[in-house]
Amino acid sequence: DGFIKIRNLVKEYKLNNGQELLAVNDVSLDIEQGDIYGIMGLSGAGKSTLIRLLNRLEEPTSGEILVRHEVIDKKKKKSLGYENKNILKFNTRLLREYRKKTGMIFQHFNLLNSKNVADNIAFPLQISGWKKRDIKKRVDELLEIVGLSDKKLNYPEQLSGGQKQRVAIARALANNPQLLLSDEATSALDPRTTNSILELLKDINKKFGITIILITHQMEVIKKICNKAAIMSDGQIIEKGETKEIF
Ligand code: ADP
Ligand code: ADP
């Protein structure tokens, strides 16, 4: 019953001039497992703030973000089923687990320029404590998924924008996330490259069942891959539903 439920989420910034700004104003959304959920709006609508709240890079002023969470019996090592948990109440351990299972990609890729492609992708696995041999195997697997096996030893500056985004996607997938958050991932790319990245995201969603939440100012992106969409304006959701019903 619901993969992510956002309830009455509010983020208020106190500005230097003493005024308050409602960047996210009473937002409620239901995201089902397997959705590619697009959030569209003009610059300043509150999209980035919303996505940062979803990853807890930012704390809300009020509201809830309920995420379906698997409860595991540690002694018997078996699943006891699922319950909805408010990520805003996660302790450090649960938050770390949640972040590990949440991949993120960005408009400007955010790769480490001093590391080659393989080492960029290996980075989150090293942080998670994977063994060297397992990392090598997993990196090769990820390179194949994003179609960059031949660029393994290249450095980011030797890659095109589309290739850089593929590296970033591989890195985001490294820990087998259940959720992928995309912040204007195709906004810096030309139309043809945009299409190939959108196709890749669609593939990943289908093949691995990863739920994707993406924010964009481009209606084309929503129409092309999102089954559901919401339109944001001045911090509020002014429309939401199945993409084909909205457009
Ligand atoms: P979008 O991603 O849709 O362009 P943002 O979430 O970046 O919108 O911004 C929403 C509103 O919140 C804007 O008016 C922006 O200026 C404001 N805002 C964003 N971050 C901060 C911040 N750290 N401090 C103050 N205001 C902010
Ligand atoms: P933990 O934080 O519980 O120690 P890890 O970070 O070591 O978990 O690994 C995350 C998950 O990926 C675990 O379920 C682990 O079994 C699995 N895993 C570890 N190495 C590999 C690998 N080479 N290929 C596929 N899955 C792996």
UniProtKB/TrEMBL annotation:
GO cellular component: plasma membrane
Keyword Transport tagged: yes
Molecular function per GO: ATP binding; ATP hydrolysis activity
Domain ABC transporter: 4-247
GO biological process: amino acid transport
Record bears the keyword NAD: no
Keywords from the named record: Amino-acid transport, ATP-binding, Cell membrane, Membrane, Nucleotide-binding, Translocase, Transport
Transmembrane segments: none
Family of this protein: Belongs to the ABC transporter superfamily.
Name of protein: Methionine ABC transporter ATP-binding protein
Natural source organism: Leptotrichia mesophila
